[in-house]
Design goal:
The protein has a seven-stranded parallel beta sheet with strand order 1-2-7-6-3-4-5, with helices on both faces. Strand 4, helix 9 and strand 5 form a beta-alpha-beta unit. Helix 2 crosses helix 12 and helix 6 crosses helix 7. It contains twelve helices and seven strands. 40% of the residues lie in helices and 9% in strands. Bound molecules: zinc ion. The site of zinc ion has 6 residues, from loops.
Length: 349
């Protein structure tokens, strides 16, 4: 067992964290005219065109919402806009020194894997890159509150699962999943949280942050042959399912069925945090798996069914997957969840 201060906080640190969470403005009351779908136009990143250098559709989040509005399932006025996570909010999980390290543009460039960002003044990097991320973090944290109230919530962003309290990487500058769960512990009186991480990559950030925390059960299904190769973090996965490069839809869904069955026997969650990366899609250059769009729809339906059967509130985060088709696939899956009555947009009509 580790004895590091980040995983075994002292009494003072626990009190400080608790006070920060209790005084946060991120949990605000949402009128019933809204649906628990969280998004802000501030999520979308555009930065003098250099966003095109990353193999990413950096306006995926806005496109998901536009598809849902065009499909007629979502009313624009029904969307919940989150607040930006403040420095005090981020300090719930992150250290002062980690947050200070983001004041260096070269360091941010490394974390988000866009080398030219190193050359920009940090005020621009804050405004164009880190502010959108902090908005998404605010969305992930709020999502747990809305899920507790309404049974489910989707943050059309977030899922920065490579970031831990002390270390960013893989496009992830803030540990939104760890933050969301700490807020839920204190504000929602929840003590058993299951993370179901089905992004193609291993979720090493939350794994490090909850390495010694028995309140969190982590099911991670990932391709072991791609980034981040974090063998230390792998030791903290409660239920590991490795899917090798080239895995196809049927095989993937069969493994997921087995995994959910076992997870349900091992742990009884009071909250499910579902990291629903779409980089498992066939053709995604990073994930290297061969899952069809219908396979993604089936996957999401299985996870929502799992939570529904256990009466557990579910938070969904869109996480990785930034090819040109990702937004369409996410929107189609959300439409399917609505058709299957696993989510309900009725208040927005
Ligand atoms: Zn990923």
């Amino acid at each position: 067992m580790s004895s590091s201060s980040s995983t075994s906080p002292t009494g003072d640190a626990v009190t400080l964290r608790r006070n920060r969470i209790l005084s946060s403005k991120l949990y605000f009351d949402v009128p019933l005219s809204k649906v628990p779908l969280i998004y802000s136009s501030a999520y979308d990143i555009s930065f003098l065109g250099i966003e095109k250098l990353h193999p990413f559709d950096s306006s995926k989040w806005g496109r998901v919402c536009r598809f849902l509005i065009v499909e007629g399932v979502l009313d624009k006025n029904g969307i919940v806009e989150p607040l930006e996570a403040s420095k005090d909010d981020l300090l719930v999980v992150h250290s002062e020194s980690y947050l200070s390290s983001l004041k260096s543009s070269p360091n941010v460039a490394m974390i988000i894997e866009v080398p030219p960002v190193a050359l920009f003044p940090n005020c621009l990097v804050q405004q164009k890159v880190l502010f959108p991320f902090r908005k998404q973090v605010g969305g992930t944290i709020l999502a747990a509150k809305l899920a507790k109230e309404q049974g489910w919530a989707i943050n059309v962003g977030g899922g920065f699962h490579h970031c831990s309290s002390e270390k960013g990487g893989g496009f992830c500058a803030y540990a939104d999943i760890s933050l969301c769960i700490h807020y839920a512990f204190v504000r929602l009186n929840v003590s058993r949280v299951m993370i179901i991480d089905l992004d193609a990559h291993q979720g090493n950030g939350h794994e490090m942050d909850f390495s010694n925390d028995s309140r969190v059960y982590i099911l991670d299904m990932y391709n072991p042959g791609i980034y981040p190769f974090d063998y230390e973090a792998r030791r903290y996965i409660d239920q590991k399912v490795e899917v090798v490069s080239g895995t196809t839809t049927n095989e993937y869904l069969r493994k997921l069925d087995e995994a959910l069955e076992l997870a349900g026997q091992k742990f009884d969650p009071e909250l499910v945090v579902y990291n629903a990366g779409t980089d498992i899609l066939d053709g995604d250059p990073l994930g290297r798996l061969k899952i069809s769009p219908d396979g993604i729809t089936a996957r999401d339906e299985k996870v929502f069914m799992f939570a529904r059967e256990r009466n557990a509130p579910l938070v969904m985060l869109t996480s990785g997957g930034y090819t040109k088709t990702s937004a369409r696939v996410i929107a189609d899956s959300i439409v399917n969840l609505s058709k299957k009555c696993l989510i309900d947009f009725h208040r927005s009509r």
